[in-house]
Write a structure and sequence with these properties.
65% helix; mainly alpha; 2 domains; 6% strand; 3-stranded antiparallel β-sheet; 259 residues
Length: 259
């Protein structure tokens, strides 16, 4: 089963579970969802009416936790630890995985120093083990560990939930990309049209040259034929050039000495 299908099934499971509960009993469901090793998207759970109703209540901290896992990072948790419940080990692991995904959204080359700071990792070996065992094996990222350059080159990263206001920016980015693509397409079509025009011009020029060559060939052939016929007429005229055999058959004239 691929990660997208498994995500969809887990999201559906927790949405149905949260929809059937209210108040305090939603706390354990949210903890379970944010601890699950295969769940990395939470916006659908956030949209459940009974979960949204936790806002402003004594259980609102669970809603804050869910928002943290939907949009936040490990650094965000450390900066707000006083108003959030303490995370269990599975939640800590999940939040650090999500932190890697957030970093990979904007940079495809992640320096080891930045990753160690963001993840509270003390050495390179621990960092590389985390990236391999907890991120790449989990299927949420693919990439290359470059020990010489001390960086992680991201080739693929799963997407996170959209943050509030991020949809508008994404739509604008897609709109700009679409406009650029349309302009590029027009440019390509114009170049194709120009190339077709040049091809037709080249074909016409080649045809003209070939026709001219044929005309020259015919002219030369005709001239050669006329010249040949002219020579035939000269040699066949009476009194023209005497045949050698005819000359031999005639009696030779006797020469008389001059007195």
């Amino acid at each position: 089963m691929d990660i997208e299908q498994k995500q969809a099934e887990l999201i559906d499971h927790f949405v149905k579970k949260a929809s059937s509960l209210k108040g305090t009993v939603l706390g354990p469901v949210i903890i379970e969802a944010t601890s699950h090793p295969s769940l990395f998207a939470f916006s659908e759970i956030l949209a459940v009416p009974s979960v949204a109703e936790l806002e402003g209540t004594e259980n609102s901290r669970y809603l804050d936790v869910l928002r943290l896992f939907a949009h936040g990072t490990w650094t965000d948790y450390k900066n707000n630890v006083e108003r959030l419940p303490e995370l269990i080990s599975d939640q800590v692991l999940k939040l650090k995985q999500l932190t890697v995904l957030t970093l990979a959204e904007t940079n495809k080359v992640l320096p080891y120093d930045q990753l160690m700071q963001e993840l509270d990792v003390t050495n390179v070996r621990e960092l590389e083990d985390f990236l391999i065992n907890e991120c790449m094996y989990a299927g949420i990222v693919r990439g290359k560990l470059d020990q010489l350059r001390r960086c992680f080159e991201v080739q693929f990263a799963a997407g996170r939930d959209l943050r509030p206001g991020q949809l508008g920016n994404m739509l604008q980015t897609l709109s700009n990309w679409l406009a650029t693509s349309e302009n590029l397409l027009v440019s390509i079509q114009e170049k194709i049209k120009w190339a077709d025009t040049m091809s037709e011009s080249d074909k016409k020029h080649r045809k003209d040259v070939e026709d001219r060559v044929e005309e020259v060939k015919k002219s030369l052939s005709l001239k050669a034929d006329i010249d040949f016929r002219g020579h035939e007429e000269i040699y066949s005229e009476p009194g023209g050039v005497m045949d050698y055999e005819e000359d031999r058959s005639r009696p030779k004239r006797r020469r008389h000495p001059i007195s």
